[in-house]
Input
Amino acid sequence: MAKVVGKVFRVVGPVVEMEEVQGLRMLDMVEVGESHLIGEVVRLKNDRAFVQVYEDTTSLKAGDLIYSEGFPLYVELGPGLLGNIYDGIQRPLQVIKEKEGVYISRGVHVTPLDHKKKWHFIPSIKTGETVSGGNVLGIVQEAPLVKHKILLAPDIQGKLSWIVPEGDYCLDDKIAAVWDKDKEKEVFMFQRWPVRKPRPYKERMPVNEPLITGQRVIDTLFPIAKGGCVAVPGGFGTGKTVIQHQIAKWSDADIVIYVGCGERGNEMTDVLLNFPKLIDPRTQRPLSERTIFIANTSNMPVAAREASIYTGITLAEYYRDMGYNVALMADSTSRWAEALRELSGRLEEMPLEEGFPAYLPSRLAEFYERAGKVDTLMGQNGSITIIAAVSPQGGDFSEPVTSHTKRFIRCFWALDRDLANARHYPSISWIDSYSEYIEDIKGWWHKNIDKQWLEYRLAIMELLQKEQRLLQVVKLVGPDVLPPTQRLILDVCSIFKNGFLQQVSFDKIDTFASARKQFLMLKVIILFYRRSEMLVKKGISVAEIRELPIYNEIMRMKQVYSEAQIDQLEDFSKKIEAILSELDF
Amino acid sequence: MKEHSLREYVGMEEVVGPIFVIRNIHNVGYNEVVEIVDKDGISKIGITLEVGKGMAVVQVLGGTSGISLNNCRVRFKEDALKVGVSEELLGRVFDGLGNPLDGMPKPLFDEQLDINGYAINPTAREYPKNIIETGISSIDVMNTLVRGQKLPIFSGSGLPHDMIATQIARQARVKNEDFCVVFAAMGVKYDTARFFIKSFEESGVLDRVAIFLSLADSPSIARLMTPKFALTAAEFLAFKKNMHVLVIMTDMSNYCEALRELSTIRGEIPARKGYPGYLYSDLASLYERAGMIKGINGSITQIPILTMPNDDITHPIPDLTGYITEGQIVLERELNSRGIYPPVAGLPSLSRLMKDNIGEGLTRADHPSLSSQLFSFYAHVKDIRALASIIGEEELSPLDHQYIKFGEEFEKRFLTQGYFERRTLEEGLDLGWDILSLLPKDELVRIKEADLKEHYKYRGDEV
Output
C-alpha cells in the first residue's frame, strides 16, 4: 500500500517541491495530493525532494500529502500490449476514454494491461527444471502472427517448483513458482520493469542486416541496419512525420513501437484510424496487430512527454528479449529534449546552450545506446532499431539537439527544405545524408538480392555528386554549354530523382518497393546510363536519346510495375538494351 | 464558484509589473483564481503562478496599477479561472477577460467552463475531413483547408493578412450548416479590430461572430487570456452546440511577446531570443484545441495570424507554430509589392491535411497530381529566373522561356484574384490545367496519362 512520504512545500508548474520527506529514493514514483497525481522524484536534498508531476498540477496546495509505494516509475509488460495506445506513462488512452469521456482528466488510475482478459497459455518447460531470468516459460498467441513468449523476470533464478498446465489464464492468475535461494517466488504472465533501467541481455552483437523500409532513397542510398540508430532532422513541413509513418507501415520489423512525443493530436488520430485498416504486405494482417502506440501530444503534460521516450524503449526491449526485431519511431526527440529543458528550468538548474541542461548529451547517449542487436537471455538474437525525428529550431542543424544527436547515431537522413518546397518527397537530401551501415549490411544485399548492389549504388552516388558540381556551372551559364556526356549525367540524375528517389506515399503501387524491385529499378537506370554514355561518345545526341519513348517509361516505371509484376522489370531492361542498340550503328 | 469558502487577506509583500507576492496565507492552490480589491473598491482578477508554504505568486490580469502593498484585499477563490458560455456570445463584443464592450448587459450563460480547457484524448479525436472551399485558388488548389485543421497565416507587417482572413471568413460559409466565427484580437490596433468588425458587418455574418478584443493599449497580461477565453467559447459552440466554428486569432506574435514579458519579470531561464522554454507547450495548448471529436457534429478550425518579426520564418514564433500547426499559408512581400493579391508564397506554403482529403471521390481525381506538378514547376521557374538574372533572358533555351511564361501566368492569373472574387475549386483546377498546358507533355512527369488525356491541351506554341 502507498504510504505518506511527505508534504507539498511549493508548486511551480509541473514541478513540486516537497518537505518532511521520509524514506524516498531517487526516481521513486510518488502520488501527489488528494487526486493522487503521478510523479517521480528527481532531486533529494536534506528533508526536501523535487518531484516532476506527470499531470496538470492545477489546485495543488502547500501541505497536500504525498504518497509512495517505494517503486521507481515502471511499465507493465505482458500480453495485451500490441495494438494498444498509451500515454507517456503507459496509461491506456482507450480505457481512459471509456471511463472519463473525450477529455483526459487528472488522477486517473487504470492498469496498463487488462488483468481480467483470458489468454491461452502453453507452457514450454516442466516442473523441476532450473530456470534463470529471461527464460521462456511458455507461449501466448498475442496476435494472430505474434507469439508472445512469457519470460521469467530477469532478477529471478532457481528451480521451477510448479507450472500450470496448458489453458486459459488471466494476468492475475499465478502461472508458476520458482525456488530462488530459499524463497518461493510466484510468477505471473506479466512483469514490471523500471523505465529508466535498460533490460539486461547476454551480449551485444554486430549489426549485419538491413531494416528494409520499402522507401527507395533509404534502402538503396542510406540504409539502416536492424539494431541501428538513425536521426531524421528537418524543419517543419519537410516530411519527418510522413517518413516515420511510412517506416512504421512498411518496414520489415516484427514489432513497431510508435512514440508520438509532443506532436500533433490529429497526426496520432491519423495513425490510429489508419493502421487497423492497412494490411502488412508480408503477413497480410492489419498493421495495428504488430504496433504499440504511445501518444503524448503537445498539449498533454510536459513531464509525461519526457517519460514517453523511456516508456517506449522499455516496451521495445521487452519484445527484443523475446527475440524479435523491434523498430522504435520517436517523433520527435526535440520535443523530448525541450521537455527536459523546461523541467530543468523549473528546477533552477544552470542552463547551457539555448537553455538546455548540461546533461542533455548524456541523456541522448543513454537513450540511443538502448538500441542495438543483442543475444538475449533466452538465447535468441533480437534487435531494436531507433528511428528518431529531430525538429531543429529554425531548421538549423547546428542547434544543440541535432548536433549532440549526431554524435550517437550512425545514420543521418537530412531533410531538405528545397526538396520539400518542390514537393519532392521523401525529401531526404542525397548530399547531406549518410549511412555508416553500408559496409555492415552489403553482405545481406549481395547474398539475398544481387552481387552488384554495392557497385550500382556507388555508381549512382558518384553521378549524383557529379551532378551537384555540374548544377553549380549550370546556375552560372546555363546547361547548353556543357559537353554531351555531362548533359547526359544531368538527364540521368533527373530520371533518378524523379523516377527513383521521389516516392509517392499515397500511391498504391509506389508507396512500398521491395528490395528486389529497388535493385531492378536501379539496374535499369544504371544500364540506361552506361549504354547511353557509349552512344553519346560515339556522337549520338543527348536530345535523340531523350526523345525515345523509353526515356519517359523509365521515369514512370515506379508506378507501373507492382510487386507482382517485378519480373517484367527484367524484360524492361532487356527492351532498353535492345532499343539503345538500334541507335548504335 | 464556491462563493462561501472565500478567504480574504490584506497586504502584499512585493509588486513587480503584473505580478505580486503575498505571504502568511494558507491553503492556496496552484493556478487558481484570485480576486484583488483595491482601496477604491475596484476589483481585479488574478491567477496563482506559484504557490508555496505560506506564500503565493499571483499574476494580475487587469494590470497592477492602483495596487498598493497594504490596503488591498486579496481573496482566494479555490477554483480555476472560468468563463461563462452560451449561444448568446454570438453577435457580441467582449474584452480580453470576457466583459462586454458593446454596452449591452452580460449575456445569460448556460455554463461556466475552465478557460484552460482539457487535452482531447487522441483516441477520441476524429481525423479532420471535408475540405472548406475558401474560394481562393492558392488555398483551395494548392494548400487545401480542411475542417478541424489549424492553418496559420505567416505574414509580415504591412502585408494583407487581415484581408485574406476576412475573405476566408466571408467565403468559407458552408450552406445548410451551423456556421460561426470566433474572433480573438490580441494587442492589435483599434483600426485593425475595426476592419474586422466592419467586414463581418458587410458580409452579413456579424450576428454569427463572437468577438474578443484586447487591443494594443490594454495590459499585456490580458492578451494571454484572450485566446483562452475565445477558444473556450469556441469549444462550447462546436462540441456542445454542434456548430462549425472558424477561430481567427490575430496577432499571435503579440501573444508570445506578452508571454516573454511575464517570463522575464518572473526571472525564468530563457531559451531562444528571450522566449521561455515552454513557449512550444504553451502555443500547443492553444493550437491543439482545434479539431473534431468522434460522435460530435461540430468542429473547430483555426486560422491564427502571426506577423513574422523582420519577415524571418526561423524566428521562434513562426518556427514553433509551424511545428504544431498542420501547415502554413506564407505571405510573400515580393509578390505583394508587385501588386499580386493574395500574395500567397507558392513554395513555403503547405497544408498537411490536404493529401488525405483531395483526389478521387473527395475533390477531383486530378487534384493531387495537378497541385504537385504546379509546385514542382513553380520551384523550377524560380531556378530559371535566378539563371536569367545572371546570363540574361535572351540566352535562355526555348523550353526555359516556356517556363518563364508559365511562371508569369501562374502568378498573374492563378494566384491573383479579387478581394470579392470567389473562384470555385473546379474553376481553380481548370485554370491550373490551362496554365500547365503552356509546357510540353513530356515535362509533366508527375501526372498520370489518364489525367493528361482528359485535361491537357498543349498551347505552348503561343509562347
